[in-house]
Amino acid sequence: MTENVSHSTTGEAERTTPGVSEACHRFGITLEDYLLPARGRISMMAPDGSLLPAEEQGTAPGHEYPRPSNERLLEAYKQLVRGRRINDQNAALVRQGRMAVYPSSHGQEACQVTVAMALEQRDWLFPTYRDTVAVIARGVDPNEVMTSFRGEWHQGYDPHEHHTSVEATPLTTQLLHAVGVAHAARLRGEDTVVIALCGDGATSEGDFHEALNFAAVFNLPVIFFVQNNGYAISVPLASQSVAPSLAHKAVGYGMAGERVDGNDTMALLSVLDRAVTLARGGSGPLLIEAETYRMQAHTNADDDTRYRESEEVAAWRAKDPLLRLRAYLVNEGLLTEAEEERIAAQAEETASALRDAMNADITPDPLELFDYVFTEPTPQLREQRAQLADELARDQEAEEA
Amino acid sequence: MSTTQNEHLHAGTPEAKQADFAGVGSTARGAHVDRPAPATHVEAPPAGPTSFAAALNTAMADAMAEDPTVVVFGEDVGKLGGVFRITDGLQERFGKDRCFDTPLAESGIAGMAIGMAMNGLRPVIEMQFDAFAYPSLEQIFSHIAKMHNRTKGKVKLPITIRIPYAGGVGGVEHHCDSSEAYYAHTPGLKVFTPAGVEDAYRLLREAIDSDDPVVVFEPKKMYWSKEQADLGALRAAHGTEAATRTEGSARVLREGSDATLITYGPSVPTALKAAEAAAEDGLSVEVLDLCTIVPLDDAAIEASVAKTGRAIVIAEASGFASVASELVARTQERCFHSLSSPVLRVTGFDIPFPAPKLEHHQIPSVDRILDTLDRLTWED
Ligand SMILES: Cc1ncc(C[n+]2csc(CCOP(=O)(O)OP(=O)(O)O)c2C)c(N)n1
Ligand SMILES: [Mg+2]
User: Fold this and answer.
1) A30 lines ligand 1 (CB under 6 A)
2) How far does A283 lie from chain B, in Å, by closest CA?
3) In which domain, by residue range, is A280 found?
C-alpha cells in the first residue's frame, strides 16, 4: 500500500489511491459508487426482529453484506445485555447522587458492542465520553472505566493494556490521535486497524475534517464511526449538517462512506466486519454513519424535555437494539431460556461490581496530584507537594486534638 | 456602537439604517432580521435577592432590546438557553436570527463573529466551558486581538466572548479550567471577570457596548448564588451619567488597614470570608476585587497597599506565569517603599485541575489565606 495518488488511464483522470482503486475493482463498481454510501441505510432486521427482504436492506451493487454467524450474534447479545445493565446501573447511581456524572449510551448499545467486536486485540479503539460500554466491551475493567465518572481521577485504565485510548471529551480531538496510531503502526510495519468514534454534532468540529483528510491522504486503516444519535445536547442534526447524510462526507476526502441502521446489531456487525477487512487489506480509511438515538438526556445534568418531544423518544423505544436482536434470536431458536438467565446473571455481576466500587467510596490520595504532571516532579512541584503534605498533617492533628 | 462603520458598509439598505439608529423603545427591525420588533419593555427582575445568572441574562436581553445589532450565538444557546441557562428565553423573545445555535465548532463561532462584527453587527458569543474555547484560540489570538491594531483602527471588532470558568462545582476534566492568563497575556483583548451580581450586569453590558473585543470570564460556581440587587435601576442608569463604569476600576469590598487581599472572580467570596476570620484574630484586612484584569486598576492597588503595607494575591489558576504573577510583580515594583513584607500569593498548584473528589485541594481556601497572612512579616 502506498499513499501515492494514481490516475486512471481511461476516461477522465480520477484521483484516488491504489487501495481505493483495488476496492472498486474488487466490487466491480465505479469509484463514485464505491465512495458514496449505498442508496439507503444498510439494515437487515426489522424492529420486530424479523429479517428484511433483500430489496429492503438499503444495499446497492458492491454494497451487499453477508449475514454474520449465529455465534457472533449470540456473543453480541450477551454484550448488549451487559451494556444495557451497565448504562442503567450507572444512571441509577448518578440519580442517587452517588456518582458525579454519566453520559449514558442507553439505546446505542448495538453500536457500542459491535465496534469492539469488529476489532482484534492488537487493533485500537478511540472512544469518547459516551462510549463506556464500548470500552468495557474491549475488555477494560468496568470499575477502572468509571474512575473518572466517580470523580476520583481523570482516567482510570491503562490505554495500552487493551489498546483502547482514553475517553476523550474535547470533541473530535481523538480522531487525529487515531490517525497517529495508524500511521505509526504503518511505519512500524504492523497491520493494526483503528476505529475512532465520535458523535453527529462532533462532525462539525475542525478536527473532524483534519483527521479524515490526513487518514485519506496517508491511506491509513482508520474507520471513522459516527454514532448519529440525532442530537448534540439540545441541537438536532438538522442544525448541524445539511449534507444528504453524514456518510456522504466521505466522498469529499476520497474515502468510502456507508450508512447503517445503528440499532440493528446484525447490519452493524456486517458493515464493520467488511470495513475492518478492507482497511486491513490496504483500502485506506472508511467512514461509517450509524443512525441511532440517544434515549436519555445528554447527561444527568441535562433536561431533554426542553428541546424534544416525548413522542419522538417513544417512537425510538420501539426500535430498541436489544429487544430487536433478542426477538431474532428467540425466533430462530438460538436463545434458550436457560441461556438467557445465564446472560442476565452475568450482567448482574457487573452491575453489582459497579455498586460495590461506589460503596467503597474511594478517596484518592491528594499527594498523588503532584506525581504525574511530569515523569519526575520538578523542584517546584516537590515544594508544592510538601506544602500540601504539611497542610494535611496539620488538619489531621487538629482532627485528633 | 460604531455607527460610522455600519453606515459605510450598509449604505443604501433601509433595514440597515433602522438597525443602526434604533435606540431604546424603537420599533425598528434589525438589519438582518425579518422579525417583530424586540420587546423592550420586559420587566427586569424586581429589586431583591437576584442570581448572578439572572443578572447576565438580563444584561444580554437589555442590550439586545436597545441595540438590534447585538446578536447572541454559540452551542445550545437557542432553545435550551445554554447549558447554564444564561441565554434562557433570548431566542423566544428576540427570534432565531438574533439568538441562535451554531454547528458545533468553536473556531467557527469565533471566526464567524469576526466577519459579523466587520459587517456591522455586535456579536456576543458563548463558549460552553473554559476548556472548550481552546479550538477558537487561533481566531481569538490571531485575529480578534489584532485586527484593530493591524488596520490602525479602521476595523473595530466589538465582540463579546463569554466563558464560564473555574471549578468548585464538582466538574469533570476540561470543565474547570481557569484560563484567564492566556487571554490577559494577549495584547488587544480586554478581560473582565465579575464577582458580584450587580457587577455581572454592569460588566456584561459594558463588554457588549465596548468597541474592543472583551472576554468575559464568568465564575460558574457563582451562577446560582444570590445577592441583593436592583437590575431595573441598573438598566435605567445604563449609559447615563449615573452609571458607574466598572471597566478598569477595582472595588474595595471590605476596608482594612493591616493587609490587602487582591483578588478577582471565583476567589472573591473566599477572600471575604478569610478577612472576616482574620478580624476575629484582630487583623484588619482589606479586600480588593479587581473586576477587570485588562484594563487593570493599578491605582486602586497602589492606594490600598500604600495604606496597608502588606498584600496577598489570591487566584484559583495555577500560579506559575499567571495573572497572579503579574499582580505580585506590579505591586512589588510600584509599592516597594510602602511594603513591610514581601507580596505573597495563594493560587492553585501547578497541576492540571484535579478530579471532583480532589478539587478542594486546588482551590484557594480560607485556611490557606489565613496561613499566608501569618507568613507576612508582622514585626517591623
Ligand atoms: C470542543 C468541545 N466543545 C464543546 C464541548 C461540550 N459538549 C460536550 S458533548 C457535546 C455534544 C456532542 O454531541 P455529539 O457529537 O452528537 O455526541 P453525543 O453527545 O450526542 O454522543 C458538547 C457540545 C466539548 N466537549 N468539546
Ligand atoms: Mg449526538
Assistant:
1) no
2) 30
3) 20-359
The answer to whether B185 and B140 are in contact (CB under 8 A) is no
Residue with cell 441598573: B234
Residue in chain B closest to A208 (alpha carbons) equals B105
Domain contains A11: no
Ligand 1 centroid, distance to A63 Cα (angstroms): 31
Spans in chain B with pLDDT lower than 70 = 1-41, 380
Q: What is the per-residue pLDDT across B256-297, written as a single tens digit (0 to 9) for each?
A: 999 999 999 999 999 999 999 999 999 999 999 999 999 999
pTM over 0.80: yes
CB contact under 8 A, A370 and B81: no
Note whether A117 and A72 are same-domain residues.
Answer: yes
Mind listing the pLDDT tens digit for each residue in A229-284?
A: 999 999 999 999 999 999 999 999 999 999 999 999 999 999 999 999 999 999 99
Q: Which residues in chain B have Cβ-Cβ distances shorter than 8 Å to A101?
A: 172
If you count residue pairs, one on A and one on B, with CB atoms under 8 Å apart, how many are there? 106
- Establish if A379 belongs to a structural domain: yes
A395 and A322 belong to one structural domain: no
Q: Which domains does chain B have, with CATH numbers?
A: 47-237 (3.40.50.970), 251-375 (3.40.50.920)
> In CATH, what number is assigned to the domain containing residue A355?
3.40.50.970
Do A279 and A300 lie in a common domain?
yes
Residue for cell digits 473586576? B291
Is B135 a pocket residue for ligand 1 (Cβ < 6 Å)? yes
Report which ligand 1 atom has the smallest distance to the Cα of A240.
16
Show the DSSP H helices in A245-336 as ranges. Answer: 265-280, 310-317, 321-331
* Cβ(A165)–Cβ(A125) below 8 Å: yes
How far CA A119 is from CA of A177, A178, B9, B122, B276, in Å, comes to 17, 14, 56, 50, 60
Confirm whether A164 is domain-assigned.
yes
Q: How far is the CA of A269 from the centre of ligand 2 (A)?
A: 21
Say which of B143, B175, B238, B337 is annotated catalytic: B175
Q: Which residue has the cell 497572612?
A: B373
